[in-house]
Amino acid sequence: MIRRDRDRGDRMDGADSPGSVGRGRRLAASAAEAIGETPLVDLARLARDSGGRVLAKLEMLNPGLSKKDRMARRILEDAVASGDLQPGQPVVELTSGNAGMGAAIVCCVQQRPFIAVMSQGNSVERARMMQTVGAEVILVPQAPGSQPGQVSGADLALVETRARQVTAERGAFRLDQFLRAGNARAYEDVALEIWEASGGAVTAFCDFVGSGGTFAGLSAGFARLDPRIRGYVVEPAGAAVLAGRPVTDPGHRLQGGGYSMAELPLLAGARPAGYLQVTDAEAIGAARRLAREEGVVGGFSTGANLAAALQLLAGPEAGGVIAIMACDSGLKYLSTDLWD
Ligand SMILES: Cc1ncc(COP(=O)(O)O)c(C=O)c1O
Q1: Looking at 29-38, 63-72, 140-149, 203-212, which range is the least confident one?
Q2: CB atoms < 10 A from the CB of 332, how many?
Protein backbone atom coordinates (compact mmCIF):
# COMPACT_ATOMS: atom_id res chain seq x y z
CA MET A 1 0.00 0.00 0.00
CA ILE A 2 2.70 2.44 1.05
CA ARG A 3 4.74 1.56 -2.00
CA ARG A 4 1.78 2.09 -4.34
CA ASP A 5 1.17 5.53 -2.86
CA ARG A 6 4.80 6.45 -3.28
CA ASP A 7 4.80 5.18 -6.84
CA ARG A 8 1.82 7.33 -7.63
CA GLY A 9 3.51 10.31 -5.99
CA ASP A 10 6.61 9.81 -8.09
CA ARG A 11 4.61 9.74 -11.29
CA MET A 12 2.70 12.87 -10.38
CA ASP A 13 5.84 14.78 -9.44
CA GLY A 14 6.82 15.64 -13.03
CA ALA A 15 5.88 19.30 -13.49
CA ASP A 16 4.32 18.53 -16.85
CA SER A 17 2.69 15.19 -16.03
CA PRO A 18 -0.41 14.75 -18.18
CA GLY A 19 -3.62 15.66 -16.44
CA SER A 20 -2.03 17.70 -13.68
CA VAL A 21 -4.12 20.57 -12.34
CA GLY A 22 -2.43 23.67 -10.95
CA ARG A 23 -4.55 24.27 -7.90
CA GLY A 24 -4.11 20.76 -6.51
CA ARG A 25 -0.39 21.35 -6.28
CA ARG A 26 -0.19 24.37 -4.08
CA LEU A 27 -1.46 25.41 -0.68
CA ALA A 28 -4.38 27.84 -0.91
CA ALA A 29 -4.51 30.36 1.93
CA SER A 30 -8.33 30.18 1.94
CA ALA A 31 -11.33 28.76 0.10
CA ALA A 32 -11.50 32.06 -1.83
CA GLU A 33 -7.99 31.47 -3.10
CA ALA A 34 -9.00 27.95 -4.15
CA ILE A 35 -11.45 29.41 -6.69
CA GLY A 36 -10.48 28.96 -10.34
CA GLU A 37 -7.93 26.87 -12.25
CA THR A 38 -10.56 24.22 -12.84
CA PRO A 39 -9.78 21.24 -15.10
CA LEU A 40 -10.50 21.39 -18.84
CA VAL A 41 -11.84 18.06 -20.07
CA ASP A 42 -11.91 16.78 -23.65
CA LEU A 43 -15.38 15.30 -24.20
CA ALA A 44 -13.87 12.87 -26.69
CA ARG A 45 -16.32 10.04 -26.03
CA LEU A 46 -19.44 12.16 -26.40
CA ALA A 47 -18.14 14.14 -29.39
CA ARG A 48 -16.76 11.04 -31.16
CA ASP A 49 -19.06 11.35 -34.17
CA SER A 50 -19.31 15.14 -34.23
CA GLY A 51 -16.41 15.75 -36.57
CA GLY A 52 -14.79 18.11 -34.06
CA ARG A 53 -13.99 18.46 -30.37
CA VAL A 54 -15.76 19.89 -27.32
CA LEU A 55 -13.65 20.94 -24.33
CA ALA A 56 -15.50 21.49 -21.04
CA LYS A 57 -14.27 23.64 -18.17
CA LEU A 58 -15.37 21.90 -14.96
CA GLU A 59 -16.55 24.95 -13.03
CA MET A 60 -18.60 22.80 -10.63
CA LEU A 61 -15.27 22.03 -8.96
CA ASN A 62 -15.08 25.52 -7.48
CA PRO A 63 -15.70 25.66 -3.69
CA GLY A 64 -19.31 26.87 -4.15
CA LEU A 65 -19.87 24.28 -6.90
CA SER A 66 -20.29 26.86 -9.68
CA LYS A 67 -18.50 29.33 -11.95
CA LYS A 68 -20.11 32.24 -10.05
CA ASP A 69 -17.51 31.93 -7.28
CA ARG A 70 -15.14 33.66 -9.71
CA MET A 71 -17.49 36.62 -10.16
CA ALA A 72 -18.01 37.03 -6.40
CA ARG A 73 -14.30 36.88 -5.63
CA ARG A 74 -13.36 39.35 -8.33
CA ILE A 75 -15.99 41.96 -7.44
CA LEU A 76 -15.38 41.73 -3.69
CA GLU A 77 -11.59 41.74 -3.96
CA ASP A 78 -11.70 44.71 -6.36
CA ALA A 79 -14.01 46.55 -3.94
CA VAL A 80 -11.64 45.93 -1.02
CA ALA A 81 -8.68 47.11 -3.12
CA SER A 82 -10.48 50.31 -4.22
CA GLY A 83 -11.67 51.09 -0.69
CA ASP A 84 -15.36 50.80 -1.68
CA LEU A 85 -15.68 47.89 0.74
CA GLN A 86 -14.45 48.48 4.27
CA PRO A 87 -13.30 45.83 6.79
CA GLY A 88 -16.32 44.16 8.37
CA GLN A 89 -18.80 45.97 6.09
CA PRO A 90 -21.76 43.76 5.12
CA VAL A 91 -22.48 42.70 1.53
CA VAL A 92 -26.01 42.33 0.12
CA GLU A 93 -27.18 40.65 -3.06
CA LEU A 94 -30.47 39.73 -4.61
CA THR A 95 -29.84 36.10 -5.45
CA SER A 96 -31.44 32.74 -5.86
CA GLY A 97 -28.39 30.55 -5.97
CA ASN A 98 -24.91 30.38 -7.39
CA ALA A 99 -23.93 34.05 -7.12
CA GLY A 100 -25.12 34.05 -3.53
CA MET A 101 -23.16 30.94 -2.66
CA GLY A 102 -19.99 32.42 -4.19
CA ALA A 103 -20.50 35.69 -2.30
CA ALA A 104 -21.26 33.81 0.93
CA ILE A 105 -17.95 31.91 0.68
CA VAL A 106 -15.87 35.00 -0.12
CA CYS A 107 -17.57 36.98 2.69
CA CYS A 108 -16.95 34.09 5.09
CA VAL A 109 -13.24 34.23 4.23
CA GLN A 110 -13.18 38.04 4.44
CA GLN A 111 -14.97 37.79 7.80
CA ARG A 112 -17.84 40.05 6.92
CA PRO A 113 -21.63 39.48 6.98
CA PHE A 114 -23.35 38.42 3.75
CA ILE A 115 -27.07 38.94 3.40
CA ALA A 116 -28.86 37.16 0.58
CA VAL A 117 -32.27 38.56 -0.25
CA MET A 118 -34.34 35.99 -2.10
CA SER A 119 -37.90 35.15 -3.00
CA GLN A 120 -39.79 32.63 -0.93
CA GLY A 121 -40.56 31.01 -4.29
CA ASN A 122 -36.98 29.64 -4.52
CA SER A 123 -36.24 26.15 -3.28
CA VAL A 124 -35.31 25.77 0.37
CA GLU A 125 -32.00 24.00 -0.46
CA ARG A 126 -30.66 27.25 -1.91
CA ALA A 127 -31.16 29.16 1.32
CA ARG A 128 -29.79 26.30 3.41
CA MET A 129 -26.59 26.06 1.39
CA MET A 130 -25.78 29.74 1.88
CA GLN A 131 -26.60 29.46 5.59
CA THR A 132 -24.03 26.67 6.01
CA VAL A 133 -21.27 29.23 5.43
CA GLY A 134 -22.81 31.85 7.70
CA ALA A 135 -24.98 33.85 5.29
CA GLU A 136 -28.13 35.53 6.54
CA VAL A 137 -31.03 34.80 4.21
CA ILE A 138 -33.99 37.18 4.03
CA LEU A 139 -36.97 35.55 2.37
CA VAL A 140 -39.42 37.87 0.64
CA PRO A 141 -43.03 36.62 0.35
CA GLN A 142 -44.24 36.11 -3.21
CA ALA A 143 -46.63 38.47 -4.97
CA PRO A 144 -50.33 37.51 -4.86
CA GLY A 145 -51.05 34.80 -7.41
CA SER A 146 -47.41 33.64 -7.80
CA GLN A 147 -46.63 29.93 -7.59
CA PRO A 148 -44.07 28.47 -5.15
CA GLY A 149 -41.15 27.09 -7.20
CA GLN A 150 -41.65 29.69 -9.96
CA VAL A 151 -40.27 33.15 -9.34
CA SER A 152 -42.12 35.72 -11.46
CA GLY A 153 -41.10 39.22 -12.53
CA ALA A 154 -43.51 40.61 -9.90
CA ASP A 155 -41.79 38.48 -7.22
CA LEU A 156 -38.37 39.75 -8.34
CA ALA A 157 -39.54 43.37 -8.17
CA LEU A 158 -40.52 42.80 -4.51
CA VAL A 159 -37.13 41.21 -3.79
CA GLU A 160 -35.32 44.14 -5.44
CA THR A 161 -37.21 46.67 -3.29
CA ARG A 162 -36.32 44.72 -0.14
CA ALA A 163 -32.65 44.33 -1.22
CA ARG A 164 -32.38 48.12 -1.64
CA GLN A 165 -33.92 48.68 1.78
CA VAL A 166 -31.58 46.19 3.46
CA THR A 167 -28.54 47.69 1.70
CA ALA A 168 -29.44 51.16 3.02
CA GLU A 169 -30.39 49.98 6.54
CA ARG A 170 -27.16 48.03 7.05
CA GLY A 171 -24.78 50.42 5.30
CA ALA A 172 -23.93 47.49 3.05
CA PHE A 173 -22.09 47.07 -0.26
CA ARG A 174 -24.32 45.74 -3.05
CA LEU A 175 -22.64 43.08 -5.20
CA ASP A 176 -24.58 44.20 -8.32
CA GLN A 177 -23.35 41.49 -10.66
CA PHE A 178 -25.38 42.76 -13.63
CA LEU A 179 -23.57 46.09 -13.58
CA ARG A 180 -20.06 45.68 -12.21
CA ALA A 181 -17.23 45.24 -14.72
CA GLY A 182 -15.48 42.86 -12.28
CA ASN A 183 -18.07 40.22 -13.20
CA ALA A 184 -16.81 40.11 -16.81
CA ARG A 185 -13.15 40.54 -15.85
CA ALA A 186 -13.36 37.42 -13.68
CA TYR A 187 -13.86 35.32 -16.82
CA GLU A 188 -10.98 36.79 -18.81
CA ASP A 189 -8.80 34.47 -16.68
CA VAL A 190 -10.91 31.52 -17.83
CA ALA A 191 -10.04 32.23 -21.47
CA LEU A 192 -6.36 32.09 -20.56
CA GLU A 193 -6.81 28.88 -18.57
CA ILE A 194 -8.63 27.25 -21.51
CA TRP A 195 -6.02 28.51 -23.93
CA GLU A 196 -3.14 27.13 -21.92
CA ALA A 197 -4.76 23.76 -21.13
CA SER A 198 -5.72 23.17 -24.78
CA GLY A 199 -2.38 24.30 -26.18
CA GLY A 200 -4.13 27.09 -28.11
CA ALA A 201 -6.37 24.60 -29.94
CA VAL A 202 -9.71 26.36 -29.37
CA THR A 203 -11.44 27.78 -32.45
CA ALA A 204 -14.77 28.88 -30.93
CA PHE A 205 -16.80 29.01 -27.72
CA CYS A 206 -20.48 29.29 -26.88
CA ASP A 207 -22.09 30.38 -23.64
CA PHE A 208 -25.57 30.44 -22.12
CA VAL A 209 -26.10 34.02 -20.99
CA GLY A 210 -27.50 35.26 -17.68
CA SER A 211 -25.81 38.50 -16.64
CA GLY A 212 -23.51 38.20 -19.68
CA GLY A 213 -20.42 38.37 -17.45
CA THR A 214 -19.03 35.04 -18.62
CA PHE A 215 -19.62 35.72 -22.31
CA ALA A 216 -18.11 39.20 -22.11
CA GLY A 217 -15.09 38.01 -20.16
CA LEU A 218 -14.40 35.04 -22.42
CA SER A 219 -14.78 37.30 -25.48
CA ALA A 220 -12.29 39.85 -24.18
CA GLY A 221 -9.87 37.18 -22.96
CA PHE A 222 -9.89 35.17 -26.19
CA ALA A 223 -9.70 38.33 -28.33
CA ARG A 224 -6.35 39.10 -26.74
CA LEU A 225 -5.06 35.55 -27.22
CA ASP A 226 -6.33 34.92 -30.76
CA PRO A 227 -8.85 37.31 -32.36
CA ARG A 228 -9.94 34.54 -34.75
CA ILE A 229 -11.72 32.68 -31.92
CA ARG A 230 -15.47 33.13 -32.41
CA GLY A 231 -17.96 33.46 -29.54
CA TYR A 232 -21.64 32.45 -29.79
CA VAL A 233 -24.41 33.53 -27.41
CA VAL A 234 -26.69 30.70 -26.25
CA GLU A 235 -30.32 31.43 -25.27
CA PRO A 236 -33.51 29.49 -24.49
CA ALA A 237 -35.45 28.75 -27.69
CA GLY A 238 -38.55 30.63 -26.46
CA ALA A 239 -36.68 33.63 -25.02
CA ALA A 240 -33.96 34.51 -27.54
CA VAL A 241 -34.16 38.27 -27.05
CA LEU A 242 -30.45 38.91 -27.62
CA ALA A 243 -30.89 37.36 -31.06
CA GLY A 244 -33.71 39.87 -31.61
CA ARG A 245 -36.50 37.29 -31.46
CA PRO A 246 -39.85 37.68 -29.68
CA VAL A 247 -40.32 35.97 -26.32
CA THR A 248 -42.70 33.04 -26.76
CA ASP A 249 -41.84 31.05 -23.62
CA PRO A 250 -40.34 33.03 -20.72
CA GLY A 251 -41.09 30.04 -18.45
CA HIS A 252 -38.21 27.86 -19.71
CA ARG A 253 -36.38 25.57 -17.26
CA LEU A 254 -32.78 26.62 -17.97
CA GLN A 255 -31.87 28.04 -14.56
CA GLY A 256 -29.12 30.65 -14.33
CA GLY A 257 -29.93 32.68 -17.42
CA GLY A 258 -32.29 33.39 -20.29
CA TYR A 259 -33.94 36.25 -18.40
CA SER A 260 -35.46 37.87 -21.52
CA MET A 261 -33.41 41.04 -20.92
CA ALA A 262 -32.60 42.52 -24.32
CA GLU A 263 -30.16 45.05 -22.84
CA LEU A 264 -27.37 43.57 -20.76
CA PRO A 265 -24.85 46.25 -19.75
CA LEU A 266 -21.95 43.78 -19.57
CA LEU A 267 -22.52 42.70 -23.19
CA ALA A 268 -22.33 46.27 -24.50
CA GLY A 269 -18.88 45.88 -26.09
CA ALA A 270 -19.13 42.19 -27.03
CA ARG A 271 -19.43 41.21 -30.70
CA PRO A 272 -20.89 37.69 -30.88
CA ALA A 273 -20.22 35.71 -34.06
CA GLY A 274 -23.77 34.39 -33.81
CA TYR A 275 -26.71 33.35 -31.66
CA LEU A 276 -27.87 29.83 -30.86
CA GLN A 277 -31.14 28.62 -29.38
CA VAL A 278 -31.62 25.55 -27.21
CA THR A 279 -34.88 24.01 -26.01
CA ASP A 280 -35.40 22.67 -22.48
CA ALA A 281 -35.46 19.13 -23.87
CA GLU A 282 -32.19 19.60 -25.78
CA ALA A 283 -30.43 21.02 -22.72
CA ILE A 284 -31.72 18.29 -20.43
CA GLY A 285 -30.83 15.59 -22.99
CA ALA A 286 -27.30 16.98 -23.35
CA ALA A 287 -26.80 17.18 -19.54
CA ARG A 288 -27.86 13.54 -19.24
CA ARG A 289 -25.53 12.47 -22.05
CA LEU A 290 -22.68 14.39 -20.41
CA ALA A 291 -23.25 12.51 -17.16
CA ARG A 292 -23.66 9.07 -18.72
CA GLU A 293 -21.05 9.26 -21.46
CA GLU A 294 -18.40 11.41 -19.77
CA GLY A 295 -19.10 11.12 -16.03
CA VAL A 296 -19.47 14.90 -15.78
CA VAL A 297 -22.50 15.93 -13.68
CA GLY A 298 -23.55 19.46 -14.65
CA GLY A 299 -26.76 21.49 -14.45
CA PHE A 300 -29.27 22.79 -16.99
CA SER A 301 -27.04 25.54 -18.37
CA THR A 302 -24.14 23.12 -18.80
CA GLY A 303 -26.49 21.00 -20.88
CA ALA A 304 -27.51 24.08 -22.88
CA ASN A 305 -23.87 24.90 -23.62
CA LEU A 306 -23.13 21.34 -24.69
CA ALA A 307 -26.21 21.12 -26.94
CA ALA A 308 -25.19 24.43 -28.54
CA ALA A 309 -21.59 23.27 -29.05
CA LEU A 310 -22.86 20.19 -30.89
CA GLN A 311 -25.06 22.47 -33.06
CA LEU A 312 -21.94 24.46 -33.94
CA LEU A 313 -20.00 21.34 -34.95
CA ALA A 314 -22.95 20.25 -37.09
CA GLY A 315 -23.10 23.71 -38.70
CA PRO A 316 -20.96 26.84 -38.86
CA GLU A 317 -18.03 25.50 -36.84
CA ALA A 318 -17.72 22.07 -38.50
CA GLY A 319 -14.40 20.41 -37.65
CA GLY A 320 -13.66 22.97 -34.92
CA VAL A 321 -12.64 22.85 -31.26
CA ILE A 322 -15.41 24.35 -29.12
CA ALA A 323 -14.85 25.41 -25.51
CA ILE A 324 -17.78 25.45 -23.08
CA MET A 325 -18.34 26.13 -19.41
CA ALA A 326 -19.72 23.30 -17.26
CA CYS A 327 -21.32 26.04 -15.15
CA ASP A 328 -22.45 24.31 -11.98
CA SER A 329 -22.97 20.97 -10.32
CA GLY A 330 -25.85 18.73 -11.30
CA LEU A 331 -26.19 17.95 -7.58
CA LYS A 332 -27.89 21.34 -7.24
CA TYR A 333 -30.81 19.98 -9.27
CA LEU A 334 -31.47 16.61 -7.70
CA SER A 335 -34.97 17.75 -6.73
CA THR A 336 -35.84 18.72 -10.32
CA ASP A 337 -36.63 16.68 -13.42
CA LEU A 338 -33.10 17.18 -14.81
CA TRP A 339 -32.32 13.61 -13.82
CA ASP A 340 -34.72 10.79 -14.68
C1 LIG B 1 -25.76 27.81 -13.50
C2 LIG B 1 -25.54 29.09 -14.25
N3 LIG B 1 -25.40 29.04 -15.57
C4 LIG B 1 -25.24 30.17 -16.30
C5 LIG B 1 -25.20 31.41 -15.70
C6 LIG B 1 -25.05 32.65 -16.55
O7 LIG B 1 -23.75 33.21 -16.41
P8 LIG B 1 -23.51 34.75 -16.61
O9 LIG B 1 -24.28 35.46 -15.52
O10 LIG B 1 -22.05 34.95 -16.48
O11 LIG B 1 -24.01 35.13 -17.97
C12 LIG B 1 -25.34 31.50 -14.31
C13 LIG B 1 -25.36 32.80 -13.64
O14 LIG B 1 -25.70 32.94 -12.49
C15 LIG B 1 -25.51 30.32 -13.56
O16 LIG B 1 -25.66 30.34 -12.21
Answers
A1: 140-149
A2: 25
Cα of 99 vs its chain's centroid, Å = 8
Question: Per-residue pLDDT for 148 more than 90?
Answer: no
Closest CA to 325 of 178, 217, 206: 206
Q: In whole angstroms, what is the distance from residue 35 CA to residue 24 CA?
A: 11
214 lines ligand 1 (CB under 6 A): yes
Are the beta carbons of 174 and 159 closer than 8 angstroms?
A: no
Other C-beta atoms lying within 10 Å of the C-beta of residue 39:
18
Residue type (1 letter), 247: V
pLDDT of amino acid 22: 61
Atom of ligand 1 nearest to the CA of 217: 10
Task: Mark residue 223 as left, alpha or beta (left: phi above 0; alpha: psi -120 to 50; beta: remaining).
Answer: alpha
Please tell me the pTM assigned to this model: 0.92
What is the average per-residue pLDDT within 125-152?
87
Q: Is the CB of 272 under 6 A from ligand 1?
A: no
